[in-house]
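Fill-in record for Nitroreductase family protein.
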Amino acid sequence: MIDRSVKAALDAAVEAARWAPSVHNTQPWTFSVSEEEIGLRADTGRKLRVGDASGRELLISCGAALFTLRTALRCHGFEPVVRVLPDPDRPSLLATVRPGPATPPDEATRLLGEHIERRRTHRAGFTGLPVPGKLLDRLAAAAADEGARLTPVLAPGAVDVLAALTRAAQAVQAADRRWSLEVIRWARPPGSSRKDGVPADAYPRTAARTEPHFPQRDYSWRHDWGGEEAEGASLGVPALLTTGGDGREEWLACGQALQRVLLSAAAHGVSAAFHTQALEMDLLREFLRHELCSGEHPQMIMRLGVTFDDKGAVRRPLTDLVE
């Protein structure tokens, strides 16, 4: 018979994992729970067929859920034992996680766990409050611990390049009906009861322009959706998350690094806004890799900053997620 403390830890880990970030809040994962093991599976029916044909963003999202599973188990006093891509014959099975040796959580782990449900994606400008340099160093170290590299982009010329590529990609995608329809598929209209996708109040109807301007997705395409204007127009600190390789294992590692960075940032009052448009276009992604990333593969473009935005979040119920 399964130990009650182990069962409680497994249940809590799955509950926590559903709060991981995902592209367009697609939540592209399911979980199987046996007596002493959790299986993390990709829900390929939620993949972006136009914007993410390779499944890269889907696996990054699932990697974020994997780190959340690990963190929740640690918070419940167990060191997780993880197998990544354990069965080549079952490509949708991305990882298995089981509770290992009993290990009391340290203060840093508890702090990450406390922010699993509090963390929010921001979709506008930030306040003018600065992000401390020491915190950026800590976030870079957190990403490195998970096998990725977080690089704050501080040189004005490099920031201009990132912003220009983001604007170019957004303009091309906005002019393509396929891209636009896919984005609004995951945009929730006001009053919607859906438990996935981006709520109408999660982005401003009219966003203040940052300088240089990093455009957001057009979740209100041909609709008058969106919340009140954002609280500020500060750019924050642009940053790149990169990996040495560019396969499924690296994408999962990137997702784990991303969630570790986001939870660490949230614990210090810092949020992230994502701008992955240029990374969804092969030519622009390759340009970034060679010109700004020293040959490493760019997996995420984000801005880090301080916001007092405290909007709610939606997640699918466990009954939809657990097999």
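KEY FINDING: DSSP finds nine helices and eight strands in the chain.
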